[in-house]
């Protein structure tokens, strides 16, 4: 079985079969990561460039580790320390890198659609590691893998995505994926941080009440406020946000059932999540990070065929 | 007869005219597995320090039956049993990206006698990959190889089996496969052409 696409630009382009294939392959890679030698030789003849035009800790480390665990050769690019700072265009930078016989490009960019543009102009396989406010497909895949692992499946599961939905590429990719896999999705947050088109365009429920949303869901995927992407103030203060949408222990204890708490990181402790929630056994935040390596190994492996 | 042979050679070039012949019927296969089990018990006694490891997928099918046959011969036999997948270690991985099978070695291989089990030993490349996988789990004391069918004239690596069900002389282009018959029983077939 093969993926239906040569690149991973977004969840929007994947079929249900593609998603299932990536998740089942990731299960085998998770087993590899438990071995004494956490490395396989699958990509020993493949060179990968990690092209990060935007800051990243988790995603960049996770991709780099996944590449090394697959025995690929890797080179790292950070926009701030490269010729991009001297005015070189994205296409010129990538063409120069590819002339050094690079096979795959992992790319993060602040412009939505940058990886799509690149995929039309260069022969290498492109993997989107986050583009502007569009998509972050590997995060949605690792979230799905983690949901499956902690609740036993995706179909029919009730997933709440809570926080800054408007500026979150994680939210958009999660919505696409969960819809494709038959989960039920509710987005929750202040009205100013939820796009007006959410219910109609995404086919999700919208609920502005946090308590009601938490009562309904099996899993709450909590997002941070993306202040760096907001051009104008969309809520009064972080204190007010915390009062209406912050999740604390008292709130979780008041629910009728125990729900799973997820967060893609970085967490703003004391804003969207209190420490006694983020560090509790209900939170699977560190499992998400661990699963991220296995899921990215699966994506790189499945896209590495040259045919 | 001569006309039939001529026809077989001519039509073999067309994919639709491949010829399939049963090499080992289910009953013969059972007989060979029971003989392999006997050889293993003879050599390793109660199999205390032994781990049987089937190679996905055909090897696991044979190993499952071998485990049953060993238990029948010696109900007290205590050995480890696992399944090994070589997908990520294949040397032809770039030709075709394959979906991996389940890997399951729920024991430490350190210092154990590991007996790799496969359905058909052909070029030796699968066994070479299986050894690579195994060594990433630890340092076995000894590794032996047990196969149902040996096609020894086509080896591409210096690898030989310690326990062989039956050897067959075949053409390089022929294929030998473990398949299910119409009743769902396993048998070994030769596909020519």
Written account of the structure:
The complex is a heterodimer of chains A (307) and B (193). Chain A is an alpha/beta fold. Chain A is 39% helix and 15% strand. Chain A has two domains: 11-135 and 290-303, 3-Layer(aba) Sandwich (Rossmann fold); 137-288, Aspartate/ornithine carbamoyltransferase (Rossmann fold, 3-Layer(aba) Sandwich). Chain A contains twelve helices and nine strands. In chain A, strands 7-6-5-8-9 form a five-stranded parallel sheet, sandwiched between helices. In chain A, helix 2 (58-69) links the parallel strand 1 and strand 2. Chain B has 193 residues and is an alpha/beta fold. Chain B has four helices and eight strands. Chain B is globular. The two termini of chain B are 18 Å apart.
The gist of it:
The complex is a heterodimer of chains A (307) and B (193). Chain A is α/β, with parallel strands linked by helices. Chain A has helices at 16-32, 58-69, 90-98, 114-119, 137-151, 169-180, 198-202, 210-216, 238-245, 249-253, 275-278, 285-303; strands spanning 47-52, 73-78, 104-109, 125-131, 158-162, 184-188, 205-207, 219-222, 260-262.
Provide key terms for this protein.
heterodimer, A: 307 residues, alpha/beta, Rossmann fold, 2 domains, 5-stranded parallel β-sheet, 9 strands, 39% helix, 15% strand, globular, B: 193 residues, 3-stranded antiparallel β-sheet, 4 helices, 8 strands, 27% strand
């Amino acid at each position: 079985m093969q993926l239906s696409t040569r690149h991973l630009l977004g969840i929007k382009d994947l079929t249900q079969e593609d998603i299932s294939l990536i998740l089942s392959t990731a299960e085998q890679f998770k087993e590899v990561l438990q071995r004494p030698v956490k490395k396989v030789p699958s990509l020993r003849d493949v060179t990968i460039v990690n092209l990060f035009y935007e800051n990243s800790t988790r995603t960049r480390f996770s991709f780099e580790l996944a590449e090394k665990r697959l025995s690929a050769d890797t080179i790292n690019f950070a926009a701030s320390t490269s010729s991009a700072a001297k005015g070189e265009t994205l296409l010129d930078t990538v063409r120069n890198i590819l002339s050094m016989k690079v096979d795959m490009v992992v790319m993060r960019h602040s412009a939505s659609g940058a990886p799509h543009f690149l995929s039309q102009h260069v022969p290498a396989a492109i993997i989107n590691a986050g583009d502007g406010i569009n998509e972050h497909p590997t995060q949605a895949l690792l979230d799905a893998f983690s949901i499956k692992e902690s609740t036993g499946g995706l179909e029919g599961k009730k997933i709440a995505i809570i926080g800054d939905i408007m500026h979150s590429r994680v939210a958009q990719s999660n919505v696409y994926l969960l819809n494709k896999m038959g989960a039920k999705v509710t987005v929750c947050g202040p009205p100013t941080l939820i796009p007006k088109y959410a219910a109609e365009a995404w086919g999700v429920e919208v609920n502005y009440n946090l308590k009601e949303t938490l009562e309904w869901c099996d899993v709450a995927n909590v997002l941070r406020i993306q202040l760096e992407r907001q051009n104008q103030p969309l809520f009064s203060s972080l204190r007010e946000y915390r009062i209406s949408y912050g999740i604390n222990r008292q709130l979780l204890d008041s629910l009728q059932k125990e729900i799973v708490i997820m967060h893609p990181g970085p967490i703003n402790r004391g804003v969207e999540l209190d420490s006694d929630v983020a560090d509790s056994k209900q939170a699977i935040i560190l499992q998400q990070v661990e699963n991220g390596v296995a899921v990215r190994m699966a994506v790189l492996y499945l896209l590495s065929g040259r045919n | 007869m001569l006309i039939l042979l001529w026809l077989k050679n001519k039509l073999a070039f067309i994919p639709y005219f491949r010829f399939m012949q049963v090499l080992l019927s289910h009953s013969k296969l059972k007989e060979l597995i029971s003989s392999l089990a006997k050889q293993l018990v003879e050599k390793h006694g109660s199999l205390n320090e032994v781990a049987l490891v089937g190679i996905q997928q055909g090897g696991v099918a044979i190993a499952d039956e071998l485990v049953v046959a060993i238990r029948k011969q010696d109900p007290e036999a205590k050995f480890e049993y696992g399944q090994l997948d070589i997908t990520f270690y294949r040397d032809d991985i770039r030709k075709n990206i394959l979906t991996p099978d389940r890997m399951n070695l729920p024991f430490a291989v350190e210092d154990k006698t590991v007996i790799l089990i496969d359905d058909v030993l052909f070029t030796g490349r699968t066994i070479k990959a299986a050894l690579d996988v195994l060594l990433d789990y630890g340092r076995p004391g000894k590794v032996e190889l047990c196969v149902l069918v040996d096609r020894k004239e086509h080896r591409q690596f210096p690898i030989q089996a310690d326990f062989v069900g039956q050897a067959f002389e075949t053409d390089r282009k022929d294929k030998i496969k473990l398949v299910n018959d119409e009743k769902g029983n396993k048998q070994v077939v030769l596909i020519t052409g």
